[in-house]
Amino acid sequence: MKNNNKEKLIDSFENIDSDYIDSAAEVYLGIPPKKNNRQYLRYIGLVAAAAMLLFAILFVVLLSRRAPEGPALTSLNSTLINENPVISITNNTAEASSGAVVTTPPTYDGWHDGFFFVKIGGQGITDSTPVTKTDPSITSAETDDQKGRYPAFILEHQNRASLVYNEKNASMTPIDPSKDQLNYSKIKVDESVSYAINSRFNSEGLYVFYNSNSFYYESYDVVSSSLLLDSKGNVCSLNLCMINGKVLIDNDYRDVSAMVLVEVDVN
Amino acid sequence: MNDLEIIRLFNVRNEGAIIQTKTKYGRVILHTAFEITMSKEDAEECENDTYVRLWDTIPPENPKSLKAYALVIVRRLALDVLRKRKRENKAFEELADCINDSIGEFETEDLSAVLNGFLKDLDEDNRKIFVARYFFSTDISSIAKSIGIAKPAVNMRLKRMREKLAGLLREQTDFLKGWGKK
Q1: What 3-state DSSP class applies to B34?
Q2: What ipTM was predicted for this assembly?
Q3: Count of CB atoms situated within 10 Å of the CB of B137
Q4: Set of chain B residues whose Cβ sits within 8 Å of the Cβ of A13
Q5: Which one of A1, A6, A7, A9 makes the best mutation probe of the B interface by having the most chain B beta carbons within 10 Å?
Q6: At residue A244, does pLDDT exceed 50?
Q7: How far does A208 lie from chain B, in Å, by closest CA?
Q8: pLDDT at B50
């Protein structure tokens, strides 16, 4: 009886208004109301315009992006005692300011990775005497240039940091990579290096960092260098300076004519 | 081709009418049959029988909506299959909530009239939901997706509408009983 009544109710749906059936069929089919082509074209146009605008903004932002001035060595958990370049190279001369000083004469250490290294002391940076191109320590290093290359001097602090730059006759002479045959391939720069803050210790134990412009320009004049000391006054790192020379970056040689290289041995 | 032209083809006994109907409404006819019978073979048989039934009934019938008319036919055929196979359909089972013992006193047409009145009073969304569920046997998920609400919300709405219909049917049967006593 109850079942018959249910069937009767089910059957009674056959006579409901056809408009109700038609409109419910839309739901039944699950098809959303169709948008006409013009609407679609309008949407496509709007989306395309928005995408182009976004792309243009991104392009402009990327183009206008510049590397920050000066060092940004904040990732080493150290104290940057001199935010301005401690060692500057201008007009083929080099000098260090108060952050990079030595008290003891340098000792010869030979060539490493294409650079002539001379140890200066090991007593730490305690004196305020600046290292300049006229420093006697540099002269003594000159005589030990065994491979006929331009000598360099090294700033070393407790066997942890070394600074090398090339010079001749007490003045900065641009390096000609083709003649000097510096083994730039040994300078393995982490591909992620783009600025000081991104610098890395490479597989050779060299801590290399440089101005981010080196990624974008084949050559430039003087890139400021800097010295970073930790809270105990130990040298953590020194900036790499490049002047229209060549250096290997991302497996690609970049022109640099003179450079100051830093070696940091972190224990 | 619009419905009027297709109906005209039926009226002049042009078999193109069936082709056009199949082209235009074949999918929804088959889908309706499948939702009720839950059998591909049965649904295809119902679809084909629907075209035959359309051919046999137009003329003299001149439906206002060819689609609705075809869907009523296929629903009838699918229900016949369902009953013949003694299978149950969950959606239709839910309608048991609405019935009372006195419904047997109603003619189907009377019930349809009550249903039409009931549907007329519903808002459009609820009407679509109700018809989708109890005419087409559409599953709750599909209704929820099409309407853009959650499944529990669809279930809740259906429950309330069934209760409302049950109340309406009770009122009508009470009225009939009272009228019969007089």
Answers
A1: helix
A2: 0.86
A3: 23
A4: 75, 112, 115, 131, 134-135
A5: A9
A6: no
A7: 59
A8: 92
SS3 labels along A211-226: CCHHHHCCCCCCCCCC
**pTM, to two decimals:** 0.46
Taking a C-beta distance cutoff of 8 angstroms, is the pair A259, A165 a contact? yes
Is there a contact between A153 and A146 (Cβ–Cβ < 8 Å)?
A: no
Token pair listed for B160: 């309330």
Is any Cβ of chain A less than 8 angstroms from the Cβ of B115?
yes
Minimum-distance CB partner of A9 among B76, B95, B120 = B95
- Provide the token pair at A124: 């730490």
What single-letter amino acid sits at A23?
Answer: S
H-helix segments, chain B: 3-11, 16-37, 40-57, 66-84, 90-94, 108-121, 124-134, 140-147, 151-181
- Assess whether pLDDT exceeds 80 at residue B35: yes
A165/A151 Cα distance (integer angstroms): 8
d(CA A17, nearest CA chain B) in Å: 7
Among B135, B138, B139, B154, the residue to mutate for chain A (most A Cβ within 10 A): B135
The verdict on B132 touching A (C-beta cutoff 8 Å) is yes
Burial A174-196 (b: 16+ CB within 10 A, else e): ebebeebebebeebbbbeebbbb
pLDDT above 70 covers a percentage of chain A that reads: 17
| Residue-wise pLDDT tens digits, B50-80 | 999 999 888 888 888 888 899 999 999 998 8
A15 closest CB neighbour out of B64, B112, B124? B112
For residue A210, the tally of other CB atoms under 10 A from its CB is 24
Give the Cα separation of A178 and A255 in Å (integer). 11
CA distance A211 to A196: 7
Highest mean pLDDT out of A50-64, A235-249, B111-125: B111-125
Q: Which two tokens stand for residue B88?
A: 């149950």
Closest to A264 measured CA to CA, from A193, A189, A202: A202
* SS3 state of residue B45: helix
Q: How far is CA B93 from the centre of its chain?
A: 14
